[in-house]
Amino acid sequence: MSSNSFGKLLTVTTFGESHGPAIGCVVDGCPPGLEIAAEEFAHDLQRRATGKSRHTSARREADEVEILSGVYEGRTTGTPIALLIRNTDQRSKDYANIAQQFRPGHADYSYWQKYGIRDPRGGGRSSARETTMRVAAGVIAKKWLAQRYGVRVRGYLAQLGEIAPQGFDWNAVEDNPFFWPVAEQVPELESYMDALRKSGDSIGARVNVVADGVPAGWGEPIYGKLDGELAAALMSINAVKGVEIGDGFAAVTQKGTEHRDLMTPQGFLSNHAGGILGGIATGQQITASIVLKPTSSLRLPGQTVDAGGQPVEVVTTGRHDPCVGIRATPIAEAMMALVLMDQALRHRAQCGDVGQVPPRIPGDVRPGQADG
Amino acid sequence: MSSNSFGKLLTVTTFGESHGPAIGCVVDGCPPGLEIAAEEFAHDLQRRATGKSRHTSARREADEVEILSGVYEGRTTGTPIALLIRNTDQRSKDYANIAQQFRPGHADYSYWQKYGIRDPRGGGRSSARETTMRVAAGVIAKKWLAQRYGVRVRGYLAQLGEIAPQGFDWNAVEDNPFFWPVAEQVPELESYMDALRKSGDSIGARVNVVADGVPAGWGEPIYGKLDGELAAALMSINAVKGVEIGDGFAAVTQKGTEHRDLMTPQGFLSNHAGGILGGIATGQQITASIVLKPTSSLRLPGQTVDAGGQPVEVVTTGRHDPCVGIRATPIAEAMMALVLMDQALRHRAQCGDVGQVPPRIPGDVRPGQADG
Amino acid sequence: MSSNSFGKLLTVTTFGESHGPAIGCVVDGCPPGLEIAAEEFAHDLQRRATGKSRHTSARREADEVEILSGVYEGRTTGTPIALLIRNTDQRSKDYANIAQQFRPGHADYSYWQKYGIRDPRGGGRSSARETTMRVAAGVIAKKWLAQRYGVRVRGYLAQLGEIAPQGFDWNAVEDNPFFWPVAEQVPELESYMDALRKSGDSIGARVNVVADGVPAGWGEPIYGKLDGELAAALMSINAVKGVEIGDGFAAVTQKGTEHRDLMTPQGFLSNHAGGILGGIATGQQITASIVLKPTSSLRLPGQTVDAGGQPVEVVTTGRHDPCVGIRATPIAEAMMALVLMDQALRHRAQCGDVGQVPPRIPGDVRPGQADG
Amino acid sequence: MSSNSFGKLLTVTTFGESHGPAIGCVVDGCPPGLEIAAEEFAHDLQRRATGKSRHTSARREADEVEILSGVYEGRTTGTPIALLIRNTDQRSKDYANIAQQFRPGHADYSYWQKYGIRDPRGGGRSSARETTMRVAAGVIAKKWLAQRYGVRVRGYLAQLGEIAPQGFDWNAVEDNPFFWPVAEQVPELESYMDALRKSGDSIGARVNVVADGVPAGWGEPIYGKLDGELAAALMSINAVKGVEIGDGFAAVTQKGTEHRDLMTPQGFLSNHAGGILGGIATGQQITASIVLKPTSSLRLPGQTVDAGGQPVEVVTTGRHDPCVGIRATPIAEAMMALVLMDQALRHRAQCGDVGQVPPRIPGDVRPGQADG
Predict the structure, then answer these.
(1) Domain span at residue C42?
(2) What does the entry list as the binding residues for NADP(+) (chains A, B, C, D) (predicted)?
C-alpha cells in the first residue's frame, strides 16, 4: 500500500507539495449517507491554519476545500471522497537559497539521500502543509464518530517548553490561540512566544489528545492494536518525536499495584492505561500524549553542508512557527479520529455492531456482539 | 490485511495462544539465498526465554523451532518461511480460577468485550508468549541486515524503576540477565528484584534499542515513515505504553538551536533526531526508547468484576515476571530489525539499491540511487 | 502484503512445499463464536484428495488437519486460526532426476529465473499441494456463509476435453469421482480417462462454480469488484488459464438486447451477468467458469533445457493427474467462498448488515442498509 | 486498502464521478527521476476518448490533465503524483429520468442495493469515465517500463461481434478508430457499426493485449501471481466478463503434449502459456484476452423496476457507445502496464534487479539475481 495512504477500511491518501499547485486527499471507505458540506471543513482548518495569530507563521492560505467526488446532494455515497485545496500563497523564491543546502534538523537531507532529487520549495512534500489534508479528512471522521457512536475527540497544548498548565478547563482551550487549558496563563504564553520570536529560536511542546465515548472492544490484537496504530498515526505528524498512551513513560517508575486500574461494578477506579488494554479499548477515555520538537527552520545561522558536500552556514528566512506544537492540536485530533473510525469499521466487520451506547462494565448487555 | 501480520514486503504473521498446542509464524518476502538453520534461532529465543533467571517467570519452554517451509538445503528459497514452536509447559489449571474474572490492567476484559469469548489460559492470545515468534522472525531480519548491509540492531535495559545506569558499556549488556549496561550495578538490581518478588508487586522499566549502519535514505514519507513504523512496531509489544525516537519527550523543553543536529563534511555533530528526519534515515544511529508498564498479574489481591458484573477480589497465582521489561530487550531488537528489513526492501524497490556501505554525508557517492 | 496471503478482512496465508515437512495456513479475521472442529475439514479435503480414484494421482496423503490456534472449546475466538497438515507420503527421490531440468509447461523454469534457487521436490511451492490449504480455509468460509447468510457455494466439472454434460443434475455431482452433473455419462468419462492414462497424455477441463443466496450489495466498486476478486482468486489456482463471469466470452457475439437481464417486481428474467453488475452482487446466483490446462507433467518425453542451458529430453515419472481439472472443483468452491466471506465482512463494515435473507428486488426492505 | 486503489508498490487510487466536477488519480511509488509532462498524457487519453469517431459516444471531453504533485522541474520526485481532469461536458439532465429507475444490465441497481444512495448522473462512479484515469496512470507505467526495461505493452480489437480479423498487422492497429489489426476490414466494421447504431442495439467484443520484453522472473507465487493480478486488473474494467491468459479456454480441449511449450537453448518453441508459468513470467510475450459485454444502455426499451419496486419500461437516451469494446484497448493496455510495473518493483525488492535485457533461456547470465 502507498506510504501516502493510511487506514485499512477508512483510508486516507494525501498528495501535494507545500508550494505546488494544490494539496488534496482521497478518503475512501466512508459509510454512505453521511451529510457533509464543503463549509464544514472550515472550522478545523482554521484552527490549524498558519497565520491564525502572530505566534504562528505568516503564510496566509485560504484553505478552501473543494469536494471533487463522493458526495451527492450533500450526502456521502460510499465512493471515494476527494478533497482539493489550491495553494495560493506560494513564495517559492523564499526558498531559492536553500535549494542547494540542507537545513540542519530538516528532511531536506534525508529526502535527497533517498530520492536523489527533491522539491526544495518550502520543504516540498515534507512540509507540515500536508497535515492540512489530515485535518480535512479528520473532519469527516469526527463527524461520523460523533453521530454514529457519540465519540468525541479533543486535544490541547499540555506543555510549552518549561511552561505547564496550572489547572485544567476544557472551556478555555478553544478561547486562545494556543489551545491552552488555563485562561489565566495565556498572557504568560504570549510574552514567552514574543520573546522567543525575537530571539530567532524555537521551542518544543507537548500536546494531549483524548477520545471520550469509545466503545469497549474497538481495536485489534497484536499488530493492529489501537495503541499501536495511534502511535504510528501520531508519530507520523511532522516534528513528533514521542508518543505516550495513558501514563506513558511515567510507568517506568510505577509499581504494578499503582498502575493497574481496579474495576468495580460501577466502573474503573482509575485510568493509567489510557483506555486501552491488549490493544483493545476498555470503554474508558482514550488518552495519548505527544512531543513536538522545536522547529529546525531558524533564522539563527547553523553549520551544514551543501549538495556538493561543502560546509556552509544556513539561515532560514521563510515563514516558520517558533513552536510547531501550537498548531498540532487539531492535527493530533484528526489522526486519533481517523484511527478510531477505521477501527470502528473493522470492529463491526468482524464482531458485528455494538450499538450507539458504549458499555461501561461487563454486566452490561452488548447487543450484536459475538454473533459472528 | 490481517492484524496478526505486519510488514509490507517482509511480512510476519504470527499465531498461537499461550497454552494452546503451539505458536508459530510465517515470514514472507525474504530474499532467496539466505542461509538459515533451526539452530540459529536458539540464541535470541534463549535471551527472551522465561526461566532464564530467577528474576523472570518460572515457566520453562524448550522453544525449539521447527522450520516447516521456505528453506531448502539450508537456504531460503523466496517462498514463505513457516516456523513452529510447540508449547510444552502448559499448566492450564493455573488459570482456571480467573476464567470468569477480569484481572485488572489485563487484556482479559477488553478481549471479552470485543469478542464475547476468550481463551483464558494464560492470557490466550494476549499473552507475551506471542512475542517468542517476533524474536524468531527477528533472527532472520537481523541476519539479513547484517550480511547484506552491515546493519546491527542492539538493545539494553535503560531503567528499572528508579534505578538508572551509572555509565554505559555494550560489553556488559549480554553478561547479565538484565541486559544492563553497567556490570557494577548488577548486584543492586538483583537485590531490588528479590525484594520486589517477595513483596508480590511489580515494576516498570525502560528499554533502549538502536541500529547502527542504517543507510541514509531508508524509510518513506508521510504514513510509511520509519519512525512511525517503529512506533507502531514497538508499541505493539505487550506492556509498552510509550515510544520515543531520538531525544523523545526531552524535546518538549529544548530550543531549536539545541535540538537541531548540525552537519559538517565530516558528519553530524550530534544526534538528537535519533537518525531519522522526515521519516527517512539520515545515516546516523537509529535510536528508540520504550517504556514497559509493571505487569498487572500480581499475587497481591485487587478489586475487579467477574463475567456476571459482580465485584470480586482477584489474586493471580500463575507464573509472572515482576518486571516484564527485563525480557523485552530482544523483543524490541526484533521489532526494530523487522521494520528496517521491510523498509530496506521497499527502498530498493522504488529507488534501487544503495550498496553495502551507507553514505555518511552528501558528498558521498551513492551508487544506484535515483536511477528509476 | 504477502503474496502468499489473500483477502482483506478474512485473510488466508498459506505456507509449505509439496515435499517439505508440512503445509499449513493461517486464517485471520474470522468472526468469533463459529463452531469448528478438526473433523469438519475431512469432507472437502477428501473431495480434493489425490488418490481419490484411479483417475487422479496415486499420492496418498492422510491430510489430517491439526488446529493449532484460534479455537477454544470448539468455537472460534476471533484470533488467527492456524491449520497444519503434515506431509506423510513424500517420495523426494521421484524428483531427483528433474532437479537440474526444467519440465516444459511447468513453473520449474520461472521459479528458477525468479529466485535463482528452487525446491525441486514435487514442484516445491508451485505444486498443487498448496491448494489443500485453500480447501481447508474454504471449509471455514463455507460454514460461516451458510450459517450466517444462507449462502451455498457449489461446483462441478463442466467439460472434460471434448466431452460436455448432456443434461444437469446437482444430485449427480457428488456421486462420481469427476464431479460430473450427469450420472449416465460417468462410464464414458471413465473409459476416456483410462485411455488417456494409458497414452501418457493429459487433457484440459472446465469447472463451473456458483453461489446461491448471496445478498445484493456484496462487492465493492472499481478495484475491489466482486468479479475482479473472483477472477484473481480463481486464476490463482494452479493450471487455470481463464475465468468467466456469467456468460463470459459468449458475450463477444451477443447483442445488448440479448445480454441485459430484464427486471420485474418478481425478479430478474435471466442471468447473463452471473449475478454481478458493476462489481456488486445483484442478489442472483453468482456464476463463474474456469479452464484448467492439461497438466505438463507427462511421461511422454519432451524437449527442454537443463540448468546449464543444455538441451535435454525430460520424462516425468512422478505421480500426476492426467486431468487436474477433476480435482479442481472443491478448490474453486473454496476460493469463491473465501472471496464471498471477505466481501461480506467488508460490506457490513461500510454499509451495516443486510440480515440473513437476501433481498430479491428493489421493493424489498433491506434492514440496516445505508445507516452509516 | 481502499477498493478504489490498486497495486502494492505502484499504487493507483482513482476518484470521481462521471458528471461530478472532476475525476483524478493519485499514483504513488513511482521511482524518482522519471521525466513526465502533462502533454504526454494526451496521446493515450485521445485513443480512449469518447467522441473519437462516430462509432463511439458523442460526449466530448477535453481530458486535459493537470499534474498537481509529485513532479518537480519535469521529473518525478518519488512522492505521490496526483493527476486531475475537470469534467467539462456534463449533461446531468440527460439522466434525470433514470434517477428513479434501474437500467437493466447496469450497476444502477447493485449500487443502490449496496449503498441505499447513488449518484445517478451518467452512472456516477460506475461509469466508464473512471477508466480515463487508469489510462492516465498507465502512461506513466508504460513510459517507465519502456525506458527502464524495454518492455512494450500493446493491444488491439480481436473480435467485434461475429467479425474476426482476417490476418494481423501491428501497423494497422493505430490507423483506424477500431484498433483493428487488418486495414482491409475497416470498411466492413464501419458498415456494421453504422447499422448497429441505427438499430439502437449494441454488441460485444474481444480485446487482446500483450507485453513484449518482460524479463523472466517478474511475478510472484500463489496469490500474487502475475496472471492472477492481470485477471483482477482486466476484469475490473467496465463491461469485462472474462479474461484469458495464453490459450485461455481453448485449453479445455487441448492435450498436454499440445499445450506444453517445449524449450530449446534457442528459446521456447511455442507460447500456449501466454508467457506465464506458476504465476511468474518466462521471458516470452505476455498475452491476455478479454471479452467486453454489449453495453446495457440502449434506446430500445426494456423491462425493469423503479426504486419503489414498480415495473417500468426504461429507455436510455444518453450518449453511449454501441460497442464499448472499441475504446477498451488503451484501457486494457494501461491495466497490463500498471500490473507489470508493480510486479517489476516487487521483484527488485525481493530478488534484486535483473538489468535491462531480459534473459531468454536458462544458460543466460542473470545479473543481480539471488544475491539477497
Answers:
(1) 5-351
(2) 48, 54
